[in-house]
Specification:
By secondary structure, this protein is α/β, with parallel strands linked by helices. It has one domain: Rossmann fold (3-Layer(aba) Sandwich), CATH 3.40.50.1240. It contains six helices and six strands. It has a six-stranded mixed sheet with strand order 3-2-4-1-5-6. A hairpin with a 2-residue loop joins strand 5 and strand 6. The longest helix has 18 residues. It is globular and about 45 Å long.
Length: about 190
């Protein structure tokens, strides 16, 4: 059985300001570092064989922090980058949705392209690491695209994935399923 624990990266200033990030390489802010530390504590007793991340610094740094208890080599996969929003990156999300209510953004990567990209990534991971337990750090739409491959419950707009939330998928007899998604890693009573 192959298992993947999907972790959305911690908060960035763009997240806090509700700006589209996409492929822009925005670092974690102080709150995002704290969220990644909470995820590290939540996952410290998990056994992982492999850690794979998007190369974008917000996801990579989240993987680094979680990896402090695991000491594994971190592998990057370009296919795990966030959806590319082209000229709209850096614009306020509300303004973009008001201008493009159908969710089709000019100059942006399509949902179909994103879905095909992440499906290829999961196939490659399954081929390369059969029967392994994998930690994968990535981005909201990337993770939702992965989850939506295996569950009708997941929707790009309606489904919320909090920063540093956990989602779990597993493959048994070549069939993937979603065990859970958007599991918080922060303490119930937060600082």
């Amino acid at each position: 059985m192959t298992k993947i624990c999907l972790v959305r990266h911690g908060l960035t200033d763009y997240n806090a300001q509700r700006k589209l990030q996409g492929a822009s390489d925005i670092p974690l802010n102080r709150e995002g570092e704290y969220q990644a530390e909470c995820a590290r504590e939540k996952l410290k007793d998990y056994h992982f064989d492999v850690i794979i991340t998007s190369p974008l610094m917000r996801a990579y740094r989240t993987a680094e922090i979680i990896n402090e208890y695991h000491g594994l080599e971190i592998e990057t996969m370009d296919e795990l980058k966030e959806q590319f929003f082209g000229p709209l990156e850096g614009h306020h999300i509300d303004d973009v949705h008001e201008k493009y209510p159908d969710g089709i953004f000019p100059g942006a990567e399509t949902f179909e392209s994103l879905s095909n990209r992440v499906a290829g990534a999961i196939s490659e991971i399954e081929r390369k690491y059969p029967e392994k337990h994998i930690l994968l750090t990535a981005h909201s739409r990337t993770i939702k695209s992965i989850l939506s491959l295996y569950s009708e419950e997941i929707h790009m707009f309606e489904t919320k994935l909090d920063n540093c939330s956990l989602s779990h998928i597993e493959c048994v007899d070549s069939k993937w399923s979603v065990n859970d998604f958007n599991i918080t890693t922060q303490p119930a009573v937060d600082r």
